[in-house]
Amino acid sequence: MDIIKFIYANKLTDDDRDPFMSFQLPSSLGHFLPGETTKFHVLGPDITRFYSAVFAMFTIQTIVAVILATIMYQFIILPRKKYQQLAASKNKENIQYTSSLPFIIGYGIIIPIAVLEPLYLKEILQIENLALRMASLSLTLPVSLRTVEAIHECTPVAVQKSRRDFIIYISCLLGPTYVDNGSERQGEINYITKAYMVHLLKKISREYILITILMSIMAHYDYEPFPTRVPFDSLDHTIGDMFSLNQLMNNLLAGLLLSIGLSQSTIGLSLYYALIYRIQTIEVVMNPFFESASPSDFWGRRWNRFIHDTLKNGIFKPVRKNYSKFTAVAATFLVSGLLHELVNYTLFEKRKYDDTRIGIELMYGKNMIFFGWNAVLIILEMLIGKWMIFNMIKRTLPKAIVSLMVVMTALPVVHLFVGDWVYGGYFQHVQFGEFIIVPMKD
Fold first, then answer.
1. Dihedral angle sign, alpha carbons of residues 70, 142, 151, 279
2. For the chain, what percent of residues have pLDDT higher than 70?
3. Dihedrals φ, ψ of 352, to 5°?
């Protein structure tokens, strides 16, 4: 425990990194640059302090997930499998497993641990860096939703073949990929190959370059480059405020930065699981801002495929068993909103450590409004998405234009989602893991 506390002793809230290189641009370019300066430092990722803490956090959460997965398999999956095998041997396959044990173990033990553990971990280790707090939530979101899917018999059949496969499925917080080529290995976990590792390294290199450029520009303006009438995190936006060009540009850039950051961090997590499990994991972010064909394509197949899959199996399918598709969609976005409220609480709730205060005054409900609006968009797509005009737009307009139109359906309310992240200092804390170009101080 002393080693863990030592790793998290540095709070990583004030960027005290020394530049590893400097450069100067021609003075003629000064008029076109922020602050008219042409001299810059380049700060490198803090590997010793930041990435060692990230690695330790994912290791802790993976170990906890393995323990919870073992309990889940022993008391939820295995009894049901044995019951089904017994029923099959007596030609009574249609008899349902009705034990209350999965509900007691799942809702009474596993989910409370998965939800509360990051909050206690934050207090015990006094974690102030918001990126590290976010890493602690790598346990809460997948394990809690996968527990629900296990309780309601929505866990994919392939992962229930053995205890080992199930534990990997639960504890691999991105989700493994499976062989799907009709071969003898159909349904088995995909293990890493040289081509897979090269693909990950190429993609994460690209994301580092993109995030360096975008973050270096936006950091100069505290991640709100365009002045607006009301604060980014406010609920006081009028319709005019929400559709003002400056607000839309701030929303777009913040959303784009969050998307690239999510892609970068999940690729890094894929490399982590390739190291410890030697398995391939799903690709989480698929260029949602420039390749989405519809709101459902944006949220379901491009923005965060991992969360989409866990919400689909953990919320949509259980609700759909007894209710309409519209109700299942609404329930899925409701739970997504609640989970994001929990994320904001974990990240930004004010706590007192050594006479310093971090966090912001949170106004709860903004995520509920944001995801509620997107639920409305998905339901509208289900009702009118096949109209001729929408099919004509998809066929005739360039994909990037269609994707921009899709993004615009939610862009005016994106501040409800990212506003707290901007004002709470999340991106400043992420900077410890990035290459950042900063102006030299005179």
1. negative
2. 91
3. -110, 120
